[in-house]
């Protein structure tokens, strides 16, 4: 949570939002005494209100938890899930690899702090819009987008840290001493935010860009949330609705087109455009790909255990994994993003956050739990067939729920490696579902990340997670 809570320095939480906007010079050029920007000023103008929300998306490309780089959920949870391994001496990363995270770990703090910074930003936007007199259509869309981002951010906080503070306003007084909220309460808020977003967002993407969520982005995240809360029937229903939207989305047959900007498989992406990132394309491409003239390793690589899970014919292995040789050792790396650097103005890839393929596997898992085993097999086969892997049959699995769930989770690992820590979060879930997975230290995997030491010092009402 934010450290500077002194009211002397807080004229409005919106100031932080505005200053984070890239390309928001028009905000700062308006004649506002003492450089103070009030919520009334910002949200009584459609252009500046839109710019405030654009600032949120620009910040998602930079914020530690969401930016896709070395200190992101993608990398840290990828290491915790045994998909990635460290290739350099980085004690912060190694602690996640060894399941021995010090509460003072700076990467852990950065995940937490950047997520709460984002929550403060969208809370400020929601509060400003609530009192705004701008046209109803714009107001509804922006409130829907802000609620969606808040739900998305809390989804990762609750899954990585468990009982985190539930902050729904910009009022520093109660926020400074907020205690641990129950996991059930956090999920209730996530669901409420997503239902609200669905009621306010339209079917089309703002300006045709999939970095701004639409109604179906919220529906997709809601399907995942229902899966995580074991509401199997609603998970199946929501994912079915998304899958049926074939005029908006499709599973792309060419795997090298999946991660392009505004891909038809994308439900929501993060754009590097407007982030003042210089020559960097996606942060994932910048991190995982080794420059041709490099003399050292990239920070992380794919684990042998994960690589061995692929069939040689799997198109995901052929298209999304690459290798370089260093000191006579082959090092395999994720190659979903093909571009490490790009000249200004030539961005062709966006960072993927939500995509259609997940909805098929959500639907398959939900149906397996509901006893609809044929439907579950059909869903997972859609993903396998796109990957060039033979379809499974009921006889292959002896039609048992656990065997089907095993296959679904394996396919999900191969489909979503290095995308937002899916494997790690799934492993934590399956422990509670009592699904057997060989070679897993279940006690370690069931452990949450520690609440950062700095937060415990500043807020005596917070309790540390078990095991730290």
TrEMBL record:
UniProt keyword Kinase, yes or no: no
Residue ranges of every copy of the SusD-like N-terminal domain listed in the record: 90-227
GO CC annotations, alphabetized: cell outer membrane
Predominant localisation class: membrane
Intracellular or extracellular location(s): Cell outer membrane
RagB/SusD domain location: 331-468
Database matches in InterPro entries: SusD-like_N (IPR033985), SusD_RagB_dom (IPR012944), TPR-like_helical_dom_sf (IPR011990)
Keyword Ribosomal protein attached: no
Keywords: Cell outer membrane, Membrane, Signal
Pfam families per the UniProt record, alphabetical: SusD-like_3 (PF14322), SusD_RagB (PF07980)
Family (UniProt): Belongs to the SusD family.
The name this protein goes by in its record: RagB/SusD family nutrient uptake outer membrane protein
């Amino acid at each position: 949570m934010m450290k500077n809570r002194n009211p002397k320095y807080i004229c409005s939480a919106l100031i932080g939002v505005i200053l984070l906007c890239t390309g928001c010079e028009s905000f700062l050029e308006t004649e506002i005494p003492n450089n103070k920007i009030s919520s009334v000023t910002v949200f009584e103008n459609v252009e500046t209100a839109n710019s405030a929300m654009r600032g949120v998306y620009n910040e998602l490309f930079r914020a530690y938890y969401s930016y896709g780089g070395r200190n992101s959920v993608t990398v840290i949870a990828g290491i915790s899930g045994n998909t990635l391994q460290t290739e350099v001496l980085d004690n912060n990363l190694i602690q996640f690899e060894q399941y021995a995270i010090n509460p003072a770990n700076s990467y852990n703090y950065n995940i937490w702090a950047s997520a709460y910074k984002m929550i403060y930003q969208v809370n400020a936007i929601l509060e400003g819009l609530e009192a705004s007199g701008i046209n109803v259509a714009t107001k509804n869309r922006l409130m829907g987008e802000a609620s969606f981002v808040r739900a998305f951010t809390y989804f990762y906080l609750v899954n990585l840290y468990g009982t985190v503070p539930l902050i729904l306003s910009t009022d520093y007084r109660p926020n400074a001493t907020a205690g641990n909220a129950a996991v059930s309460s956090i999920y209730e808020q996530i669901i409420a935010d997503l239902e609200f977003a669905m009621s306010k967002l339209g079917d089309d993407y703002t300006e045709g860009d999939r970095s701004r969520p639409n109604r179906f982005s919220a529906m997709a995240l809601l399907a995942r949330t229902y899966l995580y809360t074991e509401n199997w029937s609603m998970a199946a229903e929501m994912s079915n609705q998304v899958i049926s939207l074939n005029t908006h989305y499709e599973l792309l047959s060419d795997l090298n087109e999946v991660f392009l900007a505004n891909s038809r498989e994308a439900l929501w992406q993060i754009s590097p455009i407007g982030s003042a990132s210089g020559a960097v394309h996606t942060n994932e491409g910048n991190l995982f790909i080794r420059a041709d003239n490099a003399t050292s390793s990239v920070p992380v690589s794919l684990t042998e255990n994960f690589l061995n899970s692929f069939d040689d014919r799997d198109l995901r292995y052929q298209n999304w994994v690459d290798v370089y040789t260093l000191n006579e050792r082959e090092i395999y790396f994720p190659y979903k993003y093909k571009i490490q650097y790009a000249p200004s103005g030539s961005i062709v890839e966006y960072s993927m956050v939500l995509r259609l393929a997940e909805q098929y596997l959500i639907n398959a898992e939900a149906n397996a739990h509901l006893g609809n085993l044929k439907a579950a097999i059909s869903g997972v086969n859609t993903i396998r067939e796109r990957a060039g892997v033979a379809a499974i049959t009921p006889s292959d699995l002896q039609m048992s729920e656990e065997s089907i769930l095993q296959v679904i989770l394996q396919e999900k690992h191969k489909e979503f490696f290095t995308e937002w820590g899916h494997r790690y979060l799934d492993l934590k879930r399956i422990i509670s579902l009592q699904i057997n997975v060989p070679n897993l230290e279940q006690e370690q995997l069931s452990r949450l990340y520690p609440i950062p030491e700095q937060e415990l010092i500043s807020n005596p009402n917070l309790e540390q997670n078990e095991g730290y």
